[in-house]
Design brief:
The protein has about 450 residues and is mostly beta strands. The chain is about 10% helix and about 40% strand. The strands form seven sheets. A five-stranded mixed sheet has the order 6-7-8-9-13, with no helix packed on it.
Length: about 450
C-alpha cells in the first residue's frame, strides 16, 4: 500500500489487487450495479499514467536551468517573437530566429545561441517570424510595409529571396504559414473600414529568387478591426484561426470556395485578442488570450452538437491564479503538450520571473516558476517538447536557453536594459488599468 502509485505503474496494479481482495463485498456491490471489477486495475493504472504525465512536466519545469545566454548586441532591443527551425533534414532543430523591436530578424545556432545572421526590415515594423516546415533554412517575417518576406539563412545576402506583396493599403500585423508550406496568410490593421486576411501561394520559394508574388485573394467580412493573430492548424493544412481587437476568434476552412462557406465558427472573447492557438487531441480546441490578460477556451468539435463549446472563460487570469510569494502580471502565450494531453499558459512578472500555468475545465493552477533568468518582462518563448528545453526572450534584450539540470558556463552577466517603448510602437504594454475594461 505504501508504494507510490505516481512513480510505479506496477505498484498501481498491485494496489488494485489488494483493494479487490480486502474489499471484496464492495466489489460484489459494484457487480449488482452491472459493473465488472475486472476493469478496476485498468482504471487505476490509467489514473497513475495521467498523474505521472502531468507531474513529470512539473518536475521537468522545476529542473530547468539556464544552459546558454546569447551575447548582447550593440543595439539592444526587445525580443518580441521566437521560432525554431523544424527538424526536417536533421534529428533536431538547428536554428533560432528572433524578431526584434529595432526592425530586425536575428538568427542564432539552436544549441550554442551563437549569432549567425541579421536581416533588417527598415522602414517597416516586424510582426512575427516563422520557419518553413519542410526546409529548416527558410524563415518568413511579416512587415508593416505591406509585405511578407522570405529569407534563406544559407545565403550571405541581406536581400529577401522572395517577397509576398499585399494591396497598397495593407499594413500587416500578424501572419502564419500552414503545415505543408503551401499557403501564407497575413492579417492587416484596420484602414478606414477595411480589415483583411490576405492569402498567397507559397510554393516555389527557393526557385524564384527575389520574385514578388501577388495575393491569391482575401477574406474581408469576418473581422471589423485589427487582426492581431493568425494560427494555422498543426496537422490540417486547410484550417486556420484568426483573432482580432474586435474580440472575435474565427475558424476557417480555406478549402471552401467563399468566405461565408469557409467560416466554420465565430467565438467571442469579449476583449482584444493577443494570442491564439490550437489544443486537445487532434487539435479540435481553440484558445485565446486577451490584451487585458483574459483567457478563453473553446471546443469547436461540439459545434454540431447540443453541448456547450465553451470549456473555460476567465476574465482576468491575474486574479484567478494564486502565486505564492510572487505575482502574475501578464500572459505571454500558450502551449498544448501532446504527451500529457494538457494545455499550459506562460505568464510572468515585470522583473523577469516566468510562471507555468496548467489549464483545466475546472480552472487554472500554477505549475511552477522560473526565477533568476530575465531582469525584465518576458515577451516570447518557444518550448521544445522533444528535449523539454525552453527558449525565452524579453525586454532585457536577452535570449535564454533553459534545459533540465543545466549548468550555465557563460561568464556574461545579466543586465537590466529596459528599452524605451517609443522604439516600437506596436509593443504591447501591460497596464494594470486594463483590469477595469472587462465586459
Amino acid at each position: 500500500i505504501f508504494l507510490s502509485l505516481q512513480q510505479d505503474v506496477i505498484a498501481g496494479f498491485l494496489y488494485a489487487i489488494l483493494i479487490l481482495v480486502v474489499f471484496h463485498p464492495v466489489v460484489d456491490l459494484i457487480d449488482n450495479f452491472n459493473l465488472t471489477y475486472k476493469y478496476a486495475p485498468l482504471i487505476i493504472i490509467r489514473t497513475a499514467f495521467e498523474m505521472t504525465a502531468v507531474e513529470k512536466i512539473e518536475e521537468q519545469f522545476a529542473s530547468l536551468r539556464i544552459a546558454k545566454r546569447s551575447m548582447l548586441s550593440e543595439e539592444p532591443a526587445y525580443l518580441l517573437d521566437i521560432d525554431v527551425s523544424k527538424p526536417a533534414q536533421s534529428e533536431s532543430s538547428r536554428f533560432v530566429a528572433v524578431s526584434c523591436s529595432n526592425k530586425s530578424i536575428r538568427v542564432y545556432n539552436r544549441e550554442t545561441l551563437n549569432f549567425l545572421r541579421e536581416y533588417s526590415t527598415h522602414p517597416g515594423i516586424l510582426n512575427g517570424v516563422r520557419f518553413a516546415h519542410a526546409c529548416d533554412s527558410i524563415v518568413f517575417s511579416a512587415c508593416s510595409d505591406g509585405t511578407v518576406k522570405c529569407w534563406d539563412i544559407r545565403l550571405a545576402t541581406q536581400k529577401a529571396v522572395q517577397v509576398f506583396s499585399g494591396y497598397p493599403s495593407n499594413v500587416f500585423i500578424s501572419f502564419d504559414i500552414n503545415c505543408n508550406d503551401l499557403i501564407i496568410c497575413a492579417g492587416t490593421e484596420k484602414v478606414e473600414k477595411d480589415t483583411f486576411l490576405v492569402f498567397w501561394d507559397a510554393r516555389g520559394i527557393t526557385n524564384c529568387a527575389s520574385a514578388t508574388k501577388e495575393p491569391l485573394g482575401v477574406y474581408s467580412e469576418s473581422h471589423n478591426d485589427d487582426i492581431t493573430k493568425i494560427c494555422f492548424h498543426p496537422i490540417e493544412p486547410n484550417l486556420v484561426v484568426s483573432g482580432s481587437t474586435d474580440g472575435l476568434v474565427n475558424a476557417f476552412d480555406i478549402n471552401k470556395d467563399t468566405e461565408d462557406d469557409a467560416l466554420m465558427s465565430t467565438c467571442n472573447s469579449d476583449s482584444s485578442v493577443s494570442f491564439i492557438g490550437w489544443s486537445g487531441k487532434d487539435y479540435k480546441q481553440v484558445y485565446c488570450m486577451t490584451h487585458d490578460e483574459g483567457f478563453c477556451w473553446w471546443d469547436i468539435a461540439q459545434l454540431d452538437t447540443e453541448e456547450p463549446i465553451t470549456l473555460l472563460h476567465v476574465l482576468d487570469v491575474r486574479d484567478a491564479v494564486c502565486v505564492e510569494y510572487d505575482s502574475l502580471q501578464y500572459l505571454v502565450g500558450g502551449l498544448y503538450h501532446e504527451k500529457a494531453d494538457k494545455l499550459f499558459l506562460i505568464g510572468g512578472t515585470s522583473t523577469g520571473n516566468i510562471h507555468l500555468i496548467s489549464c483545466g475545465t475546472d480552472g487554472l493552477s500554477l505549475v511552477g516558476t522560473l526565477c533568476g533568468g530575465h531582469s525584465a518582462t518576458v515577451r516570447s518563448f518557444c518550448w521544445n517538447l522533444t528535449d523539454e528545453s525552453l527558449l525565452t526572450g524579453g525586454e532585457d534584450a536577452q535570449l535564454l536557453l533553459w534545459k533540465p539540470g543545466a549548468v550555465e558556463r557563460s561568464l556574461a552577466k545579466k543586465a537590466s536594459m529596459k528599452i524605451a517603448s517609443s522604439v516600437q510602437k506596436r509593443v504591447r504594454v501591460h497596464n494594470s488599468s486594463l483590469k477595469s475594461r472587462k465586459k
